[in-house]
Amino acid sequence: MLSISIPRPKCLQKPLAVPQRHMFGPGPSNVPPRIIEAGAKPVIGHMHPELLQIMDDIKSGIQYIFQTQNPMTLAVSSTGHSAMECAFVNSVEPGDGVLVAVNGLWGERAMDIAERLGSRVNTIVAPPGAFFSNAEIEQALSKYRPVMFFLAHGESSTGVLHPLDGIGQLCHKYNCLFVVDSVASFGSAPLCMDQQDIDIVYTGSQKVLNAPPGTAPISFSERACQKIFNRKTKPVSFALDLKWLASYWGCDGKPSRVYHHTGPVSGFYSLRESLAVFAEEGLEKSWERHGKVAEYFHAGLENMGLKLFVKEKKARLPAVTTIVAPHGYDWKEIQSYIMKTHDLEISGGLGPSAGLVLRVGLMGCNSTKENVDMVLAALKDALKHCHKSKV
Ligand code: PMP
Fold first, then answer.
1. Which residues does residue 345 pair with via DSSP β-bridges, in sequence order?
2. Ligand 1 pocket check: which of 88, 183, 188, 322 to mutate, most ligand atoms within 8 Å of Cβ?
3. Can you tell me the distance from the alpha carbon of 363 to that of 319, in angstroms, rounded to the nearest whole number?
4. Is the beta carbon of 26 within 6 A of some atom in ligand 1?
5. Given this model, what pLDDT does residue 169 score?
6. For the chain (length 391 residues), average pLDDT per consecutive 10?
C-alpha cells in the first residue's frame, strides 16, 4: 500500500496571482484581449478536423508574414530556441561545415547548437553593436565552404538589425543554405523570405505577434528540403524531425495527417488569432509603424542625454532598443525602480551586452508613441531617484 508523504503544497491553496504589467522588455510583449480570449476557447483534440483547419490557417498566416510560397511552413510547438534547433537539427549532419555570424548572444547560441550536432563550426565575429559587410561574409563563405550560414536579423542582445540584401544570393553562389533568426526583428523591419533567397527563417510568438510564448513559426525553402530529405543519418531529435512535423502539419502533400505529438491546442488558437490581427494591419504598415515609433523613441532618448548603443542609425533594431547604461548609475537599480514604481518591465543586457546596456522592447501592439512617452517618463523618474555615484 502506497502512503503519501509529501503534503499538498500550501502555495497551491492560494489563488493564482498575476500582476498587470507594461511588458516593454525584449519579450514577451503584452497580449491584447482578443488574443487572450482566443487562447481561452475550449480545448479540442489535436487531430480534430477543426484544429487541423486552424493549423492550415496558421500555415497561410506564416506564409504571409514571411512572404513565402514554401509548402514546408509550420509552427514548432515550443519557443524560438526550438525553432532554432529545428533549423539546425534537420539541416546539419555530423561533419558538415557551418558558418555562424557572431555579433551577440544569438550567434553564440547558434554556435553552441551547431557544435552539439558534431558539425565543423567556423565563425565570423564582430563586437557587440556591430555587423558584417557582404564582402566579409563572402570571404568567409569562400574560405570555409559551409553547408549552412546562420545570421540573426535582429540581435536582441545588442539591438542590431542586420542588413539582409544580397546575402542569400552569396550563400547560394557557394552552395550553402541561408538561415535567418527573425525572432526579434520579424514584423518590425522588412524581410521577404523568397525575394531575399532565405532558406530557413523562424520567429517566436511572443514578440511582435503579441501571442503568449510557446509557438514558433518556421519555414523551409525547396533547397533546404532537398538537403534535409537527402541526409544519410536521422536527425538526432525525434520531436523536431521535419519529416514528422511535415506529416503532422500536412506539408508533405499527402491528404492524411499523422500524429507526431500533441500540439499545444490553446497556443495554436492564440497564434492563429495573432496572425489574423497582424494580417489586418499588414506587413508594410507594421514595418512602418515600428520604424517611426523607434525613431521617435531614439530622438527622445537622445534629448534626455542618453546614448544609443548602436551607432549606425540604419542598423538599429526597431523592436528592441539598446541604451548605453547611464554613467554613474547601477543599471539594475534603474530596472527595478521602474518595475516597482511604474509596473513597467525594461531589461538589462544579455550575454556580451550584460552590464553595458538597458534594453527596451516596443513590439506589436506595444509599439506606440504613447508607450514611448511612458518609457521616457519612467526613465527620467528613475534617473532622478536612483543613486548616482560622483565618479
Ligand atoms: N533569437 C532571438 C534573436 C531572440 O531574441 C530570442 C528570444 N529572446 C530567441 C532567439 C529565443 O527565443 P525563445 O526565448 O522564445 O526561446
1. 23
2. 183
3. 5
4. yes
5. 98
6. 96 97 98 98 97 98 98 98 98 97 98 98 97 98 98 98 98 98 98 98 98 98 98 97 98 93 98 98 98 98 98 97 96 97 97 96 98 98 93 64
* E runs forming strands in 131-174: 148-152, 154-155, 160-161
Spatial distance between the Cα atoms of 4 and 260, rounded to a whole number of angstroms:
35
Cell numbers placing 55:
493549423
- Global pTM reads 0.98
**Which residues are within 8 A (CB) of 45 and not within 5 positions of it... i.e. 6 or more apart?**
51, 265
Q: Are strands 216-220 and 200-202 parallel, antiparallel or unpaired?
A: antiparallel
Give me the torsion for CA of 208, 210, 211, 212, rounded to 10°: 100
Distance CA 74, CA 56 (A): 9
Q: How many CB atoms lie within 10 A of CB 120?
A: 16
The Cα–Cα gap between 224 and 148 comes to 10
Instruction: With H, G, I as helix, E, B as strand and everything else as coil, classify residue 271.
Output: helix
Beta strands in the chain (DSSP E): 22-23, 73-76, 97-102, 120-125, 148-152, 154-155, 160-161, 177-181, 200-202, 216-220, 320-324, 344-345, 347-348, 357-361
In angstroms, rounded to a whole number, what is the distance separating the alpha carbons of residues 240 and 334?
Answer: 40
Quickly tell me which residue has 497556443 as its cell.
267
Residue nearest (by alpha carbon) to ligand 1 atom 12: 80
66 DSSP 8-state letter: H
Give the pLDDT score at 255.
Answer: 87
**Are 97 and 144 contacting, i.e. CB atoms less than 8 angstroms apart?**
yes
CA distance 65 to 58: 10
What pLDDT, on the 0 to 100 scale, is given for residue 75? 98
Q: How many Å lie between the centroid of ligand 1 and the Cα of residue 157?
A: 10
Residue with cell 515550443: 78
123 lines ligand 1 (CB under 6 A): no
- Residues 150 and 100: beta-carbon distance below 8 Å: yes
Task: Report the distance separating Cα 159 and Cα 105, nearest Å.
Answer: 11
- What's residue 391's pLDDT? 64
CB-based contacts of 130, cutoff 8 Å, min separation 6: 103, 160
